[in-house]
Fold each of these.
Amino acid sequence: MVKICCIGAGYASGPTMAVIALKCPEIEVVVVDYAESRINAWNSDTLPIKEPGLEDVVKQCKGKNLFFSTDVEKHVFDADILFIPADTPTKTQGLGARKATDLTYWESALILSNPEFLAEGTAIQDLLNPDHVLIGGRETPEGQKAVEALRDVYAHWVPVDRIICTNLWSAELSKLAANVLVAQRISYVNAISALCEATGADVSQVSHAVGDVGPEFLNASVGFGGSCFRKDILDLIYICECNGLPEVANYCKQVIKVNDYRKTRFVNRVVSSMFNTISGKKIAILGFAFKDTGDTRETPVIDVCKGLLGNKAILSIYDPQVNEEQIQRDLSMKKFEWDHPVHIQPMSPSSIKQVSVVSDAYAATKDSHGVCILTEWDEFKSLDYQKIYDNMQKPAFIFDGCNIVDVAKLREIGFIVYSIGKPLDKWLKDMPAEA
């Protein structure tokens, strides 16, 4: 029996290995990690990752040809194929600091490049029916033999014409370029949303019309998040600069600048709408993860919360999938600390006194002056907003950073509503976009 070992039980490796096990029953797949708590979670009935369809796939294979173990050395030694989804955090010091990827954890191990193109929330479907699979290898006999071995694994369920084989640089740059392209679309619609607010246009209608040239990633929001976008853009910027291409680097920098602008603009809108001060006012934060999967890595909500805290607001945060420890850790850590291995992250981040984390949306919004909706959880669409309004300070503000609420109904209740890229509330038309 062919044996595959994957080092690291993370967001990409767990689902990927589970699908390989499902589609290749004759291959034994073992996911190893030194973090005992993470492996225990994979071996329990409560998986550490929230992905639609993942639990069912794992249940079908676990204990048959899919295993999770902390015995790293044994399974690495026994493996025929080794996957290393190693950490690639952003450097915090030295040449390329805050731009380049820190390759300490994997530079000596790379033989093949097999970039993943997974979107959180659809990862299982992306794996089961991929648009393509990309494999990059060294242009040597050994490298090509390795490419063929990995291609044979994916060929169990992926049509051969969707398996693209390239050299190493082409594979790596393809991944970076793809993420920059997606981030560019998000920043573009967020930039247009500001113009929509100024002119009275509706960004949803504009996005629908523009969607004729491709509807993906054209939903306005407070900004993109996740573990890859910002990091990959910075990496591509650094590569461009190192290769004497400052114009290309500057083009990519604008994607990040617009993303940061969108978050800052949202904070400024909150402050300016509430009489130019939120000092000492309670603001409810509904949603902390960057998508409805529970992942908080590079969530734009962190910067929004820090902006509100910088204006001396008191925050009450609720997210159905993110616990208090994670929220406090994310708000306490410096930029780029989150993507380093856990063992070199701050062990005991200090709690922020102006932040409380509560167990439901009604507790978060009680006695608040304003509500910020920042993650598109379904439950936020069906809350009893009349009840929320009755228990808030007046005037009661809602700032919808996901465009998921019925603005007209909320205004009928009595809320002053700001929804990104939508025609402004009468109250807000006379208010500046920035405090």
Note: DSSP finds 16 helices and 13 strands in the chain.
Amino acid sequence: MADSGVLESVLRLVEKVDGGIDSQNVASSLGVDHQVIVGAVKSLQALGEVIEATQRSSKHWELTAEGNEIAEQGSHEAQVFNAIPEEGLPQNQLMKLPSGKVGFSKAMSNKWIRLDKGHEGGPRVFRMVDHVVDTVREKLQQVKNGQSSELEEKEKNELKKRKLLTEVTIKSYWITKGSNFSTTITKQETELTPEMIASGSWREKSFKPYNFEAMGMTLDSGHVHPLLKVRTQFRQIFLELGFTEMPTNNFVESSFWNFDSLFQPQQHPARDQHDTFFLSDPAGARKFPMDYMERVKKVHSEGGYGSQGYKYDWKIEEAEKNVLRTHTTAVSSRMVYKLSQQEKFTPAKFFSIDRVFRNETLDATHLAEFHQIEGVMADYNLTLGDLMGVLQQFFTKMGITNLRFKPAYNPYTEPSMEVFSYHEGLKKWVEVGNSGVFRPEMLLAMGLPKDVSVIAWGLSLERPTMIRYGINNIRELVGHKVNLQMVYDCPVCRLEC
């Protein structure tokens, strides 16, 4: 609360006037800063209806620091003119003056001076008139004396353009008497105590009214990152559709499960170092289901199950190399292989949402580490139509209903499809996922029955999160450049269904 002496002084001034008084005038009368009076007004308002205060604003012109200097000493052009003697002054000397550069150009445009470039001693500046009237100084002195209204708007704007004048908005309060006006300050109670109730003293006291619309204090707490909010929403969609989450805690994977088991040849470009992170320690894996590995080797190098294979010399040394997994499909491959080892096959639905790693060039939409969402269904006689139906249901739960499917190529699915959705904001079709039916070279080598099909689809987690929260640069979502305030401010994710 403001000083009680200031409060009582304000009240006495308000008492003397009938229609009210401006807080600027109050500050002038008491000889204090206007902000002190503003604080006093707010303190008096908190006491109840002692006063009534209406905020209002007014504009006026003030001189800048440079404007004040010119009002005292004269304009730059006038100072330059006065510095030139009758015999003239070398231009290089003139430019050394404090007002030289600005004053020279202004005086030249006013035709007060001229420049003789062919003078014998070098360029020399001479007067063109005997005397000048410094109108700039006169106008600034008018403003300084409170006569800015006598200047035309054009003249004010010209001085403002030269940064000699500035328009200032002043906010003040018009103060009038309230219904409970008094020149004495009575402190209002903020708390009803047991002692007041017991003694009955509360009847004689004035209580500050409660503000039931006031916001409570914000509690310090942790906040969920937007990426994790969207991840939770996707996970809920899969669970509602009856899917089981796959274990994805092995970031390091052997090339066998990451590539070979998916019928991806060892000379495929994705297995080069410029696309994949290879580990140096431990450099290779050793434990594999050897009978299954032999079947994988045979289907790669010789063919089988109706396929002619890739016809190359498959090497176990390549399959043993450890990598940071490039996709969660490596986990799907392990899970499908476990299904094949059951005595009797049972249909299953799996999903995973976890990190994958690729040797990407970092830019606004690509990182070397990102999240992949993957769904897998294994059942008897699944077809491309089943895949399209499941995708329609899955994306509908995400709020995406307008879908198109485009044929594509993947090493381990045939047929394969890219999934597109029409983006209302961009007014074009954008890719939202990839999908396909796992190849028989992959499934039959695992030992699954011939009439069992496995359909799968995947998409990134970062792209829908960026779209959902209006983030244009992925480095503002993930990594050391993330603004922690953004994590605090982002609302709960709700995918519109």
Note: The chain has a mean pLDDT of 84.
Amino acid sequence: MNLINPSSSTITSFKPNSRFSINALPKLLLTQNNKIPHCQSIPAFTSINGCSPFGLSSSCLSFRHFHLPRAASSEPNPEPEKAGAVPKLPLKKVQLPLVFGLWYFQNIVFNIYNKKVLNLFPFPWLLASFQLFVGSIWMLVLWSLKLQPCPKISKPFIIALLGPALFHTIGHISACVSFSKVAVSFTHVIKSSEPVFSVLFSSFLGDSYPLSVWLSILPIVLGCSLAAITEVSFNFQGLWGALISNVGFVLRNIYSKRSLQSFKEVNGLNLYGWISIISLLYLFPVAIVVEGSQWLEGYRRAIEAVGKPSTLYIWVLVSGLFYHLYNQSSYQALDEISPLTFSVGNTMKRVVVIISTVLVFRNPVRPLNALGSAIAIFGTFLYSQANLASKKKGDEKN
């Protein structure tokens, strides 16, 4: 099970049994004398990935070599196969760019329409609740139509989800508050500091990191500081919202790793679906208390500003749908590729989102602000590489 914050390069892995072997073939491969006279390597299906970019069951299969009897050939001296050769999978080559493309596209669309709505209707608590509501309905539809396998629900599983869902709620609403106060690009730069909080909290709880990891977070701190002091749209609520969002998502990852070890059979997409449902139950009652009395007046002003009510409705719906889809696609991407490739792709995704939102909203960017943003994002990339190298060395020792 991979629980990640799709907006960061921090990856917390606790793999579920979402890929499984199908080993029923050997009995069919025996000859009448229960012997295999001569064998050749050909691929056999051995694992199934259950997540597609839209939550549907995927036919993307992993392969390993299995021995089958070779039929007698009438052709003289057939060309020998190369040892360990794996068949080329054109579909796989096409699917990987598609997954990345969907992930980037969905993230960009979410950030643009999320900010458009908040500019007209500056009530992040209600908007964040609606986004969780859309994701919850999406998953319930997939489960009810059996387009996505529904996990078995038990009381211990729900109890184990309460902590991660609470921290996910804190992370989501804090980010939405930040988006409502400052430029989208600034929020994303500050959110790139999530690895700093991950290292600090994990170290406090007993994990150890090599010097390379500690050094990699220095440019993140430097870049975020430079970006903050030169940000044109700087606002303390926006800054603190982004920082608290980092804390929430880091604690979600850490808490999930510790509390969900007994539920590895639940894949990442289903886990995210249930976290969305529980987070909605946490968030919406608080949203009513915090800003519920202002919603009607805010709605009236938003309609006056936009002209057509349907325009506001479409923007809100798009922000909710694409919020869930880009998170869903991030699970698909991590399921299909290595953590190293994912971390590189995630870093580039942040760059693409920042550039796209700056172009769309025409936010003024000072040279020092751009430099600080670049340093922070590059630091995030260095952290992901150092962290993965450290984990690889640890696995080799074990």
Note: Confidence is low (pLDDT under 50) at residues 9-54, 56-89.
